Amino acid sequence: MKIQSQLSSFAIVAALLALLTSCGEKKEKDQPVDNKEVAVVQTEAVAESTPQYVVNEQFQKQVASVLTNYILLKDAFIASDPNKVKVEAEKVSQALAKVDMTLLTDAAHKDWMVYQQNLNKALKDMEGKSEIEVQRSAFKDLSSELYKTIKAYGLGGATAYYEHCPMAFNNSGAYWLSDNSAILNPYFGSKMLKCGSVEEQLN
C-alpha cells in the first residue's frame, strides 16, 4: 500500500509539472498547428453536469448545432487566422438564428432571451474586427455565454468539454468549449497550443 501511495503521488506531481511546462513554453513565432501533438493534463476526475431545465429535445439539438459551428470557429482561432474567424463567426450567427425560442416557456424562455442577446453581441464584435487578439477577447465572451446556454438546456445527447487556459489575457485566464478532451488552445494557437486543462464535461 505504501508503494502504491508513493506511485500515486509521483503521478500527480508529474502531471502538474507537465501542465506547467506546456503552459510555460512560448514560441517566438507561430508555427503550423500539428493536431497529432496533443497533451491532456488532468489530475482529477472531470466533473459532469446535467442541464438546469428540462426542455424540448429539438431545442437541445439546435443548441448542439450552434456548438458544432462554434467548434469550427475555435479551430480558426487555433490557426490564428482573423479572416477565417470572420467567416466562421458568421456561420455561428446563422446557426444561432435558427434556434426556435418558441420551444421554450417561462423561466427557460426568459433566460434564453438574455443568452441569445449576449451571444449575438460577441459574434458581432468578432465579425467587425480584423485583429486576432481583439477577436479573441470577443471569443472569450462568446465561450462564456455558450457555456451558460449549454448548462441551462443541454445538448440532446451530444457532449462538450469546458477547457481552461490559466495564462490567457495576461494570466487572468480564459475558457473555451471543445467537442473532445484534447487541449488545443485557441487563445495562443501554436505559441502555446497545449496549455490548458479540461474543467467540466457537458451533456
SSE blueprint and pairings:
Elements (H helix, E strand, L loop, with lengths): L1 H23 L22 E3 L7 H22 L3 H16 L8 H22 L4 H22 L6 E6 L2 H4 L2 E5 L18 E6 L1
Helix pairs in contact: 2-3, 2-5, 3-4, 4-5
State the gist of this model.
By secondary structure, the chain is an alpha+beta fold. Helix content is 54%, strand content 10%.
Can you walk through the features of this model?
This protein has 203 residues and is α+β, with helices and mostly antiparallel strands. It is globular. It contains six helices and four strands, in the order αβααααβαββ. Residues 1-22 and 25-43 have low confidence and may be disordered. It has one domain (2-202). It has a four-stranded mixed β-sheet with strand order 1-4-2-3. The longest helix is centred in the first third of the chain and has 23 residues, at 2-24. Helix content is 54%, strand content 10%. The chain has helices at residues 2-24, 57-78, 82-97, 106-127, 132-153, 168-171; strands spanning 47-49, 160-165, 174-178, 197-202.
Descriptors:
single chain, 203 residues, alpha+beta, 4 strands, 10% strand
Order of helical and strand elements: HEHHHHEHEE
Q: Could you list the spans in which at least 5 consecutive residues all have pLDDT below 50?
A: 1-22, 25-43
Would you tell me the structural class of the helices and strands? alpha+beta
Mean pLDDT: 84
Query: How many independent structural domains?
Result: 1
Number of H/I helices: 6
